[in-house]
Amino acid sequence: MPYPAGRRPLPDVGPPAGHGSASGAGSALLLPREPGFAMFVAIAVVIALLLSGLRIAQEYQRGVVLRLGRYVGLRGPGLYWIVPLGIERATTIDVRTLTVSAEQQETITRDSVTIKVNAVLWYRIVDAAKSVIEVADAHAAVYQLALTGLRNIIGQHDLDDVLQERNRINELLRESIASSTAVWGLEVQRFEMKDVELPAAMQQVMAMQAEAIREKRARLIKAEAEFEASIKLSSAAAQMMRNPAALELRRMQMISEVGAENNSTTVLMIPSDFVSLAQTMNQFLQQPGKSPEADAGCSSVGCAAVPAA
Fold this sequence. Notes:
The chain is an alpha+beta fold. The protein has helices at 22-27, 35-52, 128-133, 138-155, 159-164, 166-183, 200-242, 244-260, 272-285, 292-295; strands spanning 54-57, 61-67, 70-75, 78-81, 88-94, 98-108, 114-125, 186-197. The strands form three sheets. The protein has a three-stranded antiparallel β-sheet. It has a three-stranded antiparallel β-sheet with strand order 6-7-8. A two-stranded antiparallel ribbon has the order 1-4. Strand 2 and strand 3 form a beta hairpin. The longest helix is centred in the C-terminal third of the chain and has 43 residues, at 200-242.
């Protein structure tokens, strides 16, 4: 007979104990199940499966979704859902710029000098799908490629180029690996040398070379200064020769400068006529056919040996 909703039927108690059969006593312990319990469990399982497919990607992350091993697209940023039970798998990729410090590399330059170089690499993932599908480990791959490119570029240049043209070397380093990483969905933003370590003997040689270059520059500057000073002195001397009074003024100025100092210098004044007389005598002696005897007033005719008394 039908029962009102919300009420359970009473079990058939049967005859009292000792008056019925054993089967009747056992049937009194069985209770009929509710049909809504199984449905509740099924709904709970379905909800749990649906919730297990929820994923959250940060603003700087992307989810690469594969369905049964096939690429279906990117998800994120934000909340997204994938088919659970392993039907779809999501790989989260960080698309921010990453900084990697390359370990110290000992390499040989083109002029056979062994140096140790440290470098820094900046890169980011621009295509998350390629970084998952095209290469097994994108970060390890770009790191090893950077080390190889660093050795190759340093080996193609002399030591002077590595030390003096670092900007050009850095640009060559970036270009050497940029084409290879583009296939993997990565963009190399910068690749620069951080430090170049030279052997101790090479440092001493370079110090000697730098010292010699500085000494050369100092001597050239000093020679140019002396040359300019000689030109000025020559012009001053020519000016004084055209005006004897200027020479006298210069002499008087020099005497005043010497006398101003506290020393025991003795100044002997010589008239300028003696200077003119000395120049005249020098010109007369340099004329051909003259001799010291002629300067003493003797000639080849009037001078004779006088015997001793």
